[in-house]
Amino acid sequence: MIDRAAVDDGGQAPALHALFRRAFPQSDAETALARAPGRVNLIGEHTDYNDGFVLPVAVAREVRVLSGRRPDRRVEIYAANLDRQASSGGKSAPRG
Q1: Contact 65, 92 (CB under 8 A)
Q2: What is the pLDDT of residues 29-81, one digit of tens each?
Q3: In whole angstroms, what separates CA 73 from the centre of its chain?
Q4: What pLDDT shows up at residue 38?
Q5: DSSP per position, 47-60
Q6: Structural contact between residues 43 and 53, judged by C-beta atoms closer than 8 angstroms
């Protein structure tokens, strides 16, 4: 479980939790928040593991993920920036 206090959320955690509850109103699961900062490789794509040179650079983009456990094996995803939802996992089968 990720400690919410340990994630630098820029003060957006309450808004993200509210968005999660609107997107998945049937969920009463405890949520976990994770953040990944953006980066690009200016040079060296696929050369770092071949003893080549790389130059990774941070960019002012990031990905934030808020997740909650489901009682089955289905995965449901909502992309807030696209306002689209997708699902995977076929039938809603109970966890084994």
Answers
A1: no
A2: 889 999 899 998 888 777 767 777 888 899 999 889 999 998 888 899 999 88
A3: 18
A4: 92
A5: TGGGT----EEEEE
A6: yes
Token duo for residue 22: 């609107």
Give pTM, 2 decimals.
0.62
User: Letter for the amino acid at 44?
Assistant: G
Locate 26 and state its tokens.
């049937």
Cα–Cα distances (Å) from 9 to 24, 32, 36, in that order, read 21, 12, 10
Q: Tokens 């109970």 correspond to what residue?
A: 94
Question: What is the pLDDT at residue 59?
Answer: 92
CB atoms within 10 A of CB 8: 10
E strands, the chain, in order: 31-41, 56-68, 75-79, 84-88
Distance CA 42, CA 59 (A): 11
Per-residue exposure over 19-29, b if at least 16 CB sit within 10 Å of its own CB, e if not: ebeebbeeeee
**Surface-to-core class of residue 6, CB atoms within 10 Å of its CB (0-12 exposed, 13-18 middle, 19+ buried):** exposed
